Each structure stands twice: as C-alpha cells, then as structure tokens.
Amino acid sequence: MFDAKFQTFADSAAPALGTARLKLLREELERRGLDGFLVPRADAHQNEYVPPCDERLAWLTGFTGSAGVALVLRDEAAIVVDGRYTLQAAAQVDTASFAVVPLAETTPERWLETHLPAGAHFGYDPWLTTVDGEQKLRRAAATAGGVLVAVDGNPVDAVWRDRPAPPLAPVTLRDPALAGESAADKIARVQKALGEQKLDALVISDPHSVAWTFNIRGGDVNFTPLPLSWALIPRGGRPTLFIDARKLSNAVRDALAPIAEIAEPVLLERAVEMAASGGATVRLDQATAPTLLAARIEAAGGKVSNGVSPVALMQAAKNAAELDGMRSAHRRDGAALARFLAWFDTEAPKGGLTEIDAVCVLERFRRETGVLKDISFPSISGAGPNGAIVHYRVSEATNRPIRPDELFLIDSGAQYEDGTTDVTRTLVVGTASAEMRDRFTRVLKGHIAIARAVFPLGTSGAQLDSFARQHLWAAGLDFDHGTGHGVGAYLSVHEGPARLSKVGTVPLARGMVLSNEPGYYKTGAYGIRLENLEIVVDGPVIAGAERTLLAFETLTLAPFDRRGIEPALLTAEEIAWLDAYHARVQAEIGPLVDAPTRLWLEAATAPLGR
C-alpha cells in the first residue's frame, strides 16, 4: 500500500450540501437587505492556495478548484469557471442549485448584467475584490439597473458555523546564501523604485512579495511556504510588516526589528490612511490589493495608484544565488523523477497500478532526497480519459487503473529550500496509437520551439505563445490554457507577472523562470502535456544584430517518452535539440541515481535514431 504525506485523495466536495447552504446564505442576504452576493474563490490576498478558513466557494458549492466565482441571486445561482475546470465543476457542484457557466461563454460580469433584476442590491466583500474587479462589477450592476453594495462582514462567514480558525504557522528566516540579497538591500531597491515612479508609499498585499522582500518564509497555506502578511513601504523611512505576532519567534523578531516595524494586521487600515494623508500617492498592486484599501486611501485624501507592484518585477527576475539554487533543486528533483520513471516502466505493464499509486511513489522518491519541504501543488495524475481533464485531481472516488495501450499524464512539483520545481511528462503504457504519436509529437515540436526561441529584449509572453501552438494549429488543434507561467524560488509555483500566454503582456527579462508546457486534450480519450521550466538568459551574440537578444536555458532534467514520438514529424534541428537535451539529462542525472535507474536512463536518453 502506497501513501503520501503532502496530499490527500479524499473527495471533499459535498454537492448534496449545496442546496441547504445556499438556502442559509439567501436567508442571511435577505436579513441584510441584499438581493444577491458574489462568492469568489479568494482570500484577502488573492492567493492561489488559501487557508481552510477562506475556502468559502468550496464550502458553499462543493467546487474545490483553484479558480472560480459564484453569483447568488434570490431565485438563481451560477458558478463561473475557466476551461481547466468545467468538467470538474460539473462533477462537484449540485447543478440543480448552481448553473455551471464556462468562462469562455460568459464572464461573471456579463452574467450579472443579464441576470440581475433592475433595482436589485448586489453585495460583494471589499476585502476579497480587487480595484479592477470592483469596477467591473459596478459597471455590470449599473448596466442591469441594479446597485452594487460593499458588505461589512462576509455573509458566508455568518452562516458557516464550523469555519476553521486562521492559520498560525511559524515564520522562518531565508538562508542568506539562498536569498542572494539582504532584506535591507531589497527594501532600498523598492524605495528607489518608488522615488523613480513618484510614489509616496507602496502597500504589499501579496504575501509572496512580502516573503521575498523580508527574506522570510512560512506555512500558512498548503504547497507554498507563505506567511500570510502585509507590508507598507514608504518612499523614505522604515517599512512596517503587518503579521500576527504569534507566528514570530524571538529570533525571527530580532532579525526583522532592525529593518522594519512589526504590527498586527488589524492596524493595516489605519496605517494606510495615515500614509495617504495630505494627498500622498499610494501604489496598490492591481493583481492582489483589496478595493477596501483603495477606499481608505481616498477617504484619507490620498491618491490611489493602481498598477503592477515594483516588487513583483524584482522578485520575478532571480539573482545568481536564486538561480543556482533552482538548478540544484532541479538536479535533485530530476534524480527523484528518473527513479520514478524507471519504476513506472517496470511496474505499469504488469497491471494493478492506479493513479494514486503513481502519485504516492513519486512523492516517496522526492521525500527520500531528505530535503523535501512540500509538494508545490497537488499532483495531476491522469490515466486515459482522466488525462484530458486539464487540472484533474485524483481522488479516491475517481482513482482509475493505469491500463495498457493508454497514455498516462503526470504533472507534479516539489518545494525545496533552494528551489521550486514543476514538471509534466506524458507516458506511454504499452503501445501508442498513430493518432496519439501524432499529437504527442506536435506538442513536443511546440515545446522545442519555445525552448529554442531567440527573441529581442522587450518581447512579451504573448508574442511567443504561438510558437508552442503552430504545429497543433496546422492540424486544426489547440489547447485551452496558457503555454507557461512564472515560477518562484522556494515560493509560488505559479508566479506573476510574466507568463507565456495569449494575454501575457509583461516583457520577459533575464533571470525570470517560466514553464514551457504545451498540451493537447481529447475529451474522453487521453491528454498530453510536456513541461519543463526555463530560465530567461542572454541570447547569442550575432554579428550585425541590431537588438539585444534573449533565449531560454532549460532547468528541468527528465527524458521525454520516446514511445510517444513519431520521428518522421520532427525536423533535423528538432531531433538535434532532443538528442542534445537527452545527453544533458544523462550526464547530469546519471551520476545521481542507482545502477538500475542509470541503466534505464541510458536507454531512455539514447539518440532518437537508435
């Protein structure tokens, strides 16, 4: 029997409770004079992973995905989810109470425009809504002839009788050798940026950025070493870190005291008002800051600057120490993954393995490194048709055997103190059909196109995204997710602001780490995704070039399953890249694994022509 320490497989969705809980919420809304309410999957920081006390959407609807929003009216309700979660939402939600609405068909705001009755009062929690989000809701309500109302105290919390307490995980200090820069120097850089942008203060509402700035880590949410916290940095003078004091040991407090004031989070609103007084301009991070803080700034006579936090761009461009740590983490993780792949190749053909078995064994190999801190997200382990569910999370209820002549998709990652990993491989069990090999190879060609890309300084992710799709497009195919996301250094596996996506407008910069993960999904049949992490590095020096060039260095070290490849579809340049990559995997990972795994690795990384 296999087991996992860092993830569970119990299906916490409770669609049967949706009707009763919806009734309780509607009664509370009526008591407050509201005709509807917005329930986002969010906490006050817009975190991807939230503590149990902030899982309001899951409690109300049963949907456990990482993104979605419910709109509750007196006589109808809907949950809007993106393409990753349409199948999952339909399975987890009581569809008699909640209509499952794909984001591709309509946004929450458009749904509100067409469903909110004229004259209705629609509520939202200003702690859980960004400035941009509030403006969209206000326009939608006005278009419908309704009124948008900010609530004082979330009505879901009022009827959630057994709501968990907020987390109090201890805060730890980041090893200076891994951080590569002191917190004092980071704060000085932030304050310099505030001066250059003519800003008087910055509210850091993203705990990832707080953690990076102050060189601290925590454990308040699963999968990401976050201390839930806030910070206020003035253009001049000492910053303030707002964090529950119960999370701080004397040693941590002593280390932070020389660089910042320490205050309880309940004092944040007043501090923001004081920073804004006298007409000061305060930057709020448009991606994470709650609209409540914008209201406090304006009420104090200040000016809200709603834009990208300067910390986000600094944090995204890793320094040399952080990149060295990431490389070390990926070599260690590559060895654990090689052990898993060798084990899988031996055991899967025998029959009897399940999706959960694979997750547990891969986690076990990572734990055996002796330094695994956590996984970086719940592993996606999809056999056959389950692999076509983009963000499928295996549970005891959905656990499927891994069968011959099917594809198996495993997307997983790890958190080590020196770096964060994220890797996807699609494995052939038995023999792949001609169609499977065609789709696999088209995805691989797109992956290679990104990995080999050379592009001018200032290029955005949107400009590169089509590189990954071109060979699928040529066959009338595509995939409904971004090609890549940013990745933190022992922080979030999904880090902004840059990404490889149709809507990725932030220019790529040296030191950024992004995923390269094109895919293809045939509903009810199989899924394919091939993912490595890439560092943005200096590009080649070309005689006569008129632009500074950038390129990618591949971090992830794991072989691609040769049984899924149709060599005739690859160009000579693509085969050369693949053979060179596999040779590097063999050279760097081979010495780190046991003899049986090394033999398997030699065969798995042999040149494609052999």
UniProtKB/TrEMBL annotation:
Peptidase M24 C-terminal domain: from which residue to which, for each copy? 549-608
Q: Any idea where the Creatinase N-terminal domain is?
A: 21-142
Q: What is its EC number?
A: 3.4.11.9
List the Gene Ontology MF annotations in alphabetical order: aminopeptidase activity
> Which PANTHER family does the UniProt record give?
XAA-PRO AMINOPEPTIDASE 1
Top EC class for this record: hydrolase
Q: What name does the UniProt record give this protein?
A: Xaa-Pro aminopeptidase
One Gene Ontology term of the biological-process aspect is:
proteolysis
Q: Where is the Peptidase M24 domain?
A: 325-536
Q: Which family does it belong to?
A: Belongs to the peptidase M24B family.
Q: State the source organism's domain of life.
A: Bacteria
For this UniProt record, give its keywords in alphabetical order, as a comma-separated list.
Aminopeptidase, Hydrolase, Metal-binding, Protease
